Structures are given as C-alpha cells and as structure tokens.
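Listing S7. Sequence submitted for prediction.
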Amino acid sequence: MTSESSRLSLSLDGLWDFAFEGPTISLAGAEIRTPSVWQTQLPCLRNAPGVGRYRRRIALPESWRGRALHLVMDGVFHETTVLVDETPVARHGDGWTTLDVDLTAA
C-alpha cells in the first residue's frame, strides 16, 4: 500500500482551453484558469445556463510508464464527464465530493 505522501503528482492548475454552449450564449476559443469558477472569470456566463468544456493536453513523465494513474479533482461542477482522447471515462454528479478516476487503462 502506498501512502498518499509518496504518490507522484502532476498539478493541472493553470490555463485550460474553455468553450461554453447554452441556449442564450456560445463561447469558443477562450482560456480559463483553474482552479476557479468560470462565472468569476467570464462575467458573460454569470447566469447563463449551458455546458462548459475544459480541455488540456498534458504529457506524462516517461518515468510514470507502467504505474497506476489516477485523476483526482476537488470541487468539479455538479454534473461532470471526464474524457480521455474524446472517450468518456468517468461521470460525477456531486460537486461537493472529490472525483478520483483510475485512468491506468485509458
């Protein structure tokens, strides 16, 4: 068993590509900083219903090859779908709990 303090980690905080699609507004080609709430960075979305999409390409260190890989997110929105290479790998429906997804096979 590995202790949490000995886990290797890669922070995904920072700039992400962002798009939004709703009945009253569409937004493409934006950048957004995480962690944060999109409505605080993009006031035009403050009361807009719709779906936000975050996208980021990452490169994993070569030394991680063959290791278990987990994506852990806190404070993701109430309805979340995680995609890897456009394939859904997890769904989360509770913005108050941590999302921990085993991405080893993905």
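Caption to Listing S7: primary sequence and predicted structure tokens for the chain studied. The helical segments are 38-41. The beta strands are 14-21, 26-34, 51-55, 70-73, 80-84, 87-92, 99-102.
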